[in-house]
Amino acid sequence: MKVFVASAWPYVQSVPHLGNLIGSILSADVFARYARLKYGKENVILVSGSDEHGTPIEVEAVKRGVNPKLLTDQAHEYDRKLFLDVWEASFDNYTRTESEVHKTFVREFMLKVSKYVKVEEEEIPYCERDKLFLPDRFVKGTCPYCGFEDARGDQCDRCGRLLTPSSLINPKCAICGSTPVMRKTKHWFFDLREFSEPLREWLTSSGDMPDNVKSTALGWINEGLKPRSLTRDNSWGIPAPFPGAEGKTIYVWFEALLGYLSATKEYFKLKGEEHKWREFWEEGRVKSFYFIGKDNIPFHAVILPAMLMASGENYALPTVIAATEYLLYEGQKFSKSRRIGIWIDEAPRIMDVEYWRFVLIRLRPEERDMNFLWREAIRIVNNELNDDIGNLVNRVVTMLNRYFQGVVPQYSDLREEDVRLLELAKTSAERMSQQFERGKLKAGSEEILNLAREANAYINLKAPWDRIKTDVKDVGNSLYTAANVVRTIAVLLYPIMPKHAQVIFSQLNLGNIDDERWDSAGEPKVKPGHKVGKPNPVFKKLPQDFEVKIEEIVSRVREEVEKDRPELLK
Q1: Domain check: are 331 and 219 in the same one?
Q2: Is 173 annotated as a binding residue?
Q3: pLDDT < 70 positions in the chain
Q4: What's the CATH code of the domain at 449?
Q5: Annotated binding residue at 176?
Q6: Where is the Methionyl/Leucyl tRNA synthetase domain (predicted)?
Q7: Residue 266: how many CA atoms within 13 Å on its side-chain side?
Q8: What are the C-alpha distances in Å from 147 to residues 157, 176, 548?
């Protein structure tokens, strides 16, 4: 079985914030690291890339009088280094929509679905001052559904409804602010109506698709799918391949979705094995997992599968689309203009990246919007990481060195509480796997903490420091059991905190954690006679005054970081 893992493609117009990170890149990486242990490295691929096309970049380029690619080159490289080098994202291919492989693939794919494409005229706002049509974000106005006065021509940021430029009330040109006139223009439309019933059948029959994705997508279908324009009057993007479509480009949402396929193809092409890319896209041979924010559900659960169906190829439809709700920051929406939130180039200067990874997974908004609070982040680091997990590791390795010269003792006649904890280690790994396979990473992480707390309670009950004087055999049983639970916790922690999981493995003297297999996580692999390393604290608590000083810290870091950002991202 092949496993395809994808993150929604980050848009390069701005540096992602923590909410963007947990909704896509980080979640996809955590799952992919788990999947490699579960299914084998050779059977898993993780892809994403910079979404460079579309109107926001072109609007910015027009305002600055520069070529859009000059801006996206800088932004792509900056984001790529952040994701891969700083945040430890283990992409097999982190590419971009300006990739030649992607552009060629998209044009060829569009011709394959041309039987479902029709040409129609529509009225689009036209700016007489700038002498151009105003597709998507070239125009702003009032949302006709919720009344939000700063809605874009493609989507309302307040209510999330998808819009068209002509549906806006009181539209204004995003470049000059003038009121546009309506003019007719010809466009190519993908007829989604043809796929209403196949999409409904696919969604309702899926036992793996999360409920929030099903309900949103089925809501779209029940409202009645309509043809959606494949083309735009932009100059920045992939030229439309249809006869007579000269001067048109492919609508960014259609072409960016195809990046999942083109990124897979590009990865194997770079390896000299281009013929292998279809192994990760062939129906019946692959499970696919997409990690996105909830505002992207219609594109991934309606438009993408419809295009895959229309292609005539045997492409695998998504198995799980894991769509997070919104992460708020201290009760408010992230806002660059109002300086509300933390951005991913600021966060590493505030706290260890792997602490961030753990905190964000623990706060992942899987069922409802979640609120990032500094006091909660501090509690997670100090109580969950340091006290529950780190303290357990330190206690066990310390006692092995103190009472048995660092050698795992022989065990015999394990008692009920020993057997119960070893069984819990095994079932914890199984339950965490089940949650991850449903795209529930936060829920899965609960198993790590539950096991650590049970192990700490077990050690308190067994009290080796007292029994060493009267029952060495029982102490041997206890520390043999506890050492194996610590190993299990390291494996379960690895997808979230790979470096710290390796530190735990190193203290147990167990070699490279990358070589482990998930299905052995709960097995008692630490055998009697094995010599462990020396104890050393795995985690450190954040200072007591951290919350008091955090505003000052953030302000200082923000000032430092903004100097280093590319021009487009300032």
Answers
A1: no
A2: no
A3: none
A4: 1.10.730.10
A5: no
A6: 4-396
A7: 26
A8: 11, 22, 39
**Radius of gyration of the chain, Cα coordinates, nearest whole angstrom:** 26
The whole-number pLDDT of residue 19 equals: 96
Q: Classify the phi-psi angles of 260: left when phi > 0, otherwise alpha if psi is within -120 to 50, otherwise beta.
A: alpha
CA–CA distance, 126 with 123 (Å, rounded to integer):
9
Give the pLDDT of residue 161: 82
- Tell me the CA end-to-end span of the chain in Å, nearest whole number: 44
Longest alpha-carbon distance in the chain: 92
pLDDT at residue number 122: 86
Same domain for 276 and 193: no
Residue 548's identity, in one-letter code, is V
pLDDT of residue 338: 84
Task: Judge whether 127 is annotated as a binding position.
Answer: no
Number of separate domains in the chain: 3
Please check whether residue 213 is in contact with residue 296, taking contact to mean a CB–CB distance below 8 angstroms. Answer: no
Strand-by-strand arrangement of the 286-293 sheet = 93-96, 44-50, 2-7, 286-293, 320-324
Q: H or E element: which one contains 204? A: helix 196-205
Does 336 carry a binding-site annotation?
yes
In a domain, 549, yes or no: no
Q: Are residues 346 and 258 in the same domain?
A: yes
Hey, what are 497's tokens?
Answer: 């905190």
Strands (E), 423-478: none
Q: What is the pLDDT of residue 345?
A: 96
- Looking at the domain assignment, is residue 566 inside a domain? no
Predicted TM-score (pTM) of the model is 0.94
pLDDT at position 223 is 94
Alpha carbon 245 to its chain's center: 35
Residue 530 placed within a domain: no
Write down the pLDDT at residue 301.
Answer: 98
**Which residues form the domain of 88?**
2-110+252-370
Model pLDDT, residue 195: 98
Residue 30 lies in a domain: yes
The predicted structure's pLDDT at residue 73: 94
Residue 154 tokens read as 């493609």
